[in-house]
Design goal:
The structure is a single chain. By secondary structure, the protein is mainly α. The chain has a single domain (3-163), classed as Ferritin. 84% of the residues lie in helices and 0% in strands. The protein is built from 6 helices and no strands.
């Protein structure tokens, strides 16, 4: 192998890690929008009529921290295998929908609209899982807990909407 070949290969390796940071930055931006949407709303959430199976508000932060990490790595794995194609466009769409839901539910208190939006999010996550699975089974596997949590969150959103209408 030539020196220039080694340098090119090292540059590609560095690009991969920079890309992982980029995916991490994208999910951090989505999380930041969500964080702004819930600022100062824990008392409001606690004051809502909720089902007995609703988790305590302190649980959402740790769960979302793990899920956002999984989402970032899944996007990165797909990007490594296929670059920017349908699976990554679905990944971007679900991330945008993810960022929109929290301000709708918490900041705006629009529980019905938030439910309609989370249904779209659920569909987008499902499409992302399916399209990612065609490219990288590990990526689809990393997204499975996210899809399960969004399913749970949709049921919780619907129930809170109905109980507080």
């Amino acid at each position: 192998m030539t020196i220039s070949g080694s340098i090119r290969r090292a540059g590609r390796g560095a690009r991969r890690w920079w890309a992982l940071l980029g995916f991490g930055a994208a999910v951090t931006a989505a999380a930041a929008v969500g964080g702004l949407g819930v600022r100062g709303t824990s008392e409001e959430y606690a004051g809502l009529a909720q089902p007995s199976w609703a988790p305590p508000s302190w649980l959402f932060g740790p769960v979302w921290t793990v899920l956002y990490g999984l989402i970032a790595v899944a996007g990165w794995l797909v990007w490594q295998r296929a670059g920017w194609g349908p699976a990554l466009w679905a990944w971007v769409i679900q991330l945008v929908l993810n960022a929109i839901w929290t301000p709708l539910f918490f900041a705006a208190g629009r529980y019905g609209l938030a439910f309609a939006e989370i249904v779209l999010l659920w569909l987008a996550v499902g499409a992302t899982v399916v399209l990612s699975g065609r490219v990288s089974r590990p990526a689809a596997g990393l997204l499975a807990p996210y899809w399960a949590w969004v399913t749970f969150a949709a049921a919780l959103n619907f129930t809170i909407w109905r109980l507080n209408s």
